[in-house]
Amino acid sequence: MSSRTVISGGLVITASDEIHADVLIEDGRIAALAVPGTQNWTADRTIDATGKYVIPGGVDAHTHMELPFGGTFASDTFETGTRAAAWGGTTTIVDFAVQSVGHSLREGLDAWHAKAEGNCAIDYGFHMIVSDVNQETLKEMDLLVEEGVTSFKQFMAYPGVFYSDDGQILRAMQRSAENGGLIMMHAENGIAIDVLVEQALARGETDPRYHGEVRKALLEAEATHRAIKLAQVAGAPLYVVHVSAMEAVAELARARDEGLNVFGETCPQYLFLSTDNLAEPDFEGSKYVCSTPLRPKEHQAKLWQGLRTNDLQVVSTDHCPFCFVGQKELGRGDFSKIPNGLPGVENRMDLLHQAVVDGHISRRRWIEIACATPARMFGMYPKKGTIAPGADADVVIYDPHAEQIVSAETHHMNVDYSAYEGKRLTGRVETVLSRGELVITEREYTGHAGHGTYTPRSTCQYLN
Question: Which residues are bridge partners to 123 per DSSP?
Answer without folding.
Answer: 92
